[in-house]
Amino acid sequence: MPALLVYLLQVNGALLLFCAAYYLVLRRLTFYGLNRWFLLFALGFAVAYPFVDVVAVLQWFRQPLPTPLLPATWTPLVLPRPQALEASYWNIVLVVYGLGTGVLLTRLLLQLASLYQVHQRSRPARWQGLAFRHVAEPVSPFSFWQTIYLSPDQHTAAEFPAIFRHEQVHVQQWHTLDVLVAQLVQAICWCNPAAWWLRRAVQDNLEFITDRAVLRTGLLDAKTYQYNLLKISRLAPTAALANHFTFCTLKSRILMMNKQRSSSVSLLAYALLVPSLIVITVNCSKPQVEPSSASTQPTTVDISQAAKAKREVKLPDNMIYFVDGRESDKSEVANLAPELIESMNVFKGQEAQKLFGVETAGVISIITKANKDSEAVKRFKQHYNLSTTTQGTDNTKASNTKASFLPNTLVMGAFTPKC
């Protein structure tokens, strides 16, 4: 699977987890300020955490135990990996995903262009010393970035204090940033319902924050303010990027305004939930090492004393042996003197079957020093498309260290300490 798709899966998984936590636990609480930071953290963490090696960061705080290292010289051999047939399918998935993201990003740009047109058609004005943009069209009051847009002809003078206070809260607390971040994450993770729900949650929560700030000023009581919201909701809305004086979920806003404030004990939900979500997300994103499905006998390595380190490799009966490019048997391999061996390569399970085209548990190929440059060896490497480096094989270069052969066992001094 391409790395980009792995990244997108990690991001979308984190969004699902944080979205479920918000709607199941936090949304009913009246700590709107904390909810705002939780939602922003959820969006930012989901996008950024795949780039951070959290496991390495945690291990950095641990005191590592001293580990003796025995240097060894290896002669790797590179096996050409067969190109995965499903690679083209992954490319198609990436193209389709990219098209969806491109469509939403284009829509975002069109919304910005629409707001710019509204700005161009409006003119600067002031009300009781507060600057705003006078819009001729009958639109719902809204703010974007640090500017308030209003159509004064659509409102009475008694409504102006609440409207301006509402939009001032949006401007002073930079609510446009929250909306833009949510829109960008939605464009990146457009196929994930959690991205859409979180974007809606961000906008709803910003209105909860603003409604509470307006009611705290005492300019008007909650009932009058709610009637004003109902009246203004009939006006035409502008682009989704703007912070509106009202929006379609008016019922939710009224319910939250009338709801009793949450107990301080509920703050424990944030203290427990956020660390738990981080731990779960990081653990779920750890790479899992799958056990090999090959049924070959394991190659055992026995390291004895550090000064006389040796590598012991048992010779299985159900493997194919090659010596200097020709097929051989286990007895010939067992009788080879290790000082005559230039290199030995072990191909296991499915890799051996794909490379050599036979049903076998594995293949052992040995090249001797005397024949390493022979025509037979060159033809053997060329026939099986072998080069001088490999991945996925057990490869050992024999040294001049004294070694001995045991029955059915090859013992080589493969680990030679260096000064």
Overall description:
With 419 residues, the chain is of the alpha+beta class. The two termini are 43 Å apart. The protein folds into two domains: 3-81 and 88-284, no CATH class; 306-412, no CATH class. The chain is elongated. 23% of the residues are buried. A hairpin with a 2-residue loop joins strand 3 and strand 4. The chain is built from 13 helices and 13 strands.
Strand order of the largest sheet: 1-2-4-3-5
- State Rg: 34 Å
Overall structural domain count: 2
Give the mean pLDDT. 77
Number of strands: 13
**How much helical structure, as a percent, in the residues?**
40-55%
Summarize the structure.
The protein is α+β, with helices and mostly antiparallel strands. The chain has helices at residues 3-26, 32-48, 54-60, 87-121, 160-172, 175-188, 193-216, 222-232, 250-258, 268-284, 330-334, 349-356, 375-383, and strands spanning 123-127, 130-134, 142-144, 147-150, 243-244, 311-314, 320-323, 326-328, 341-348, 362-368, 394-396, 405-406, 409-412.
Annotation keywords:
419 residues, alpha+beta, 2 domains, five-stranded mixed beta sheet, elongated, disordered C terminus, Peptidase_M56
